[in-house]
Design a protein that fits this description.
108 residues; mainly alpha
Length: 108
């Protein structure tokens, strides 16, 4: 790795919106398998166990979104940039997450 390589990686911006791709699919698949192994190891491969893991992960992510939005606002990110990541309008993001910001605690 060249001396400037770390700085180059740090300067790489993230996409301006959510991305559904092979990388996210691999990470999510691993999370589903690991959660199923923790909760019901004998049910690996059972679609209902997969559904349980997916629904649990979705619920956890939903709870963490409010924390991440509050953190992004504290870091000075605007509602438009946050909305871009959420795939919604700035007004909708502000309506959804603005009131929660006073009650959100860092649960991650």
């Amino acid at each position: 790795m060249s001396p400037g390589a770390v700085e180059d990686l740090e300067a790489m911006p993230h996409p301006p919106h959510a991305v559904v791709d092979d990388a996210s699919a691999v990470v999510l698949d691993e999370a589903i398998v690991k959660l199923t192994l923790v909760r019901s190891p004998m049910a690996l491969g059972d679609c209902l166990a997969d559904l349980h893991a997916m629904a649990s992960l979705a619920a956890q992510l939903h709870a963490w979104l409010a924390v991440a939005v509050a953190g992004a606002r504290r870091q000075g990110h605007g509602w438009a940039a946050i909305a871009g990541q959420l795939g919604t309008s700035a007004a909708a993001a502000r309506r959804r997450y603005g009131p929660q910001m006073t009650t959100s605690t860092d649960t991650r």
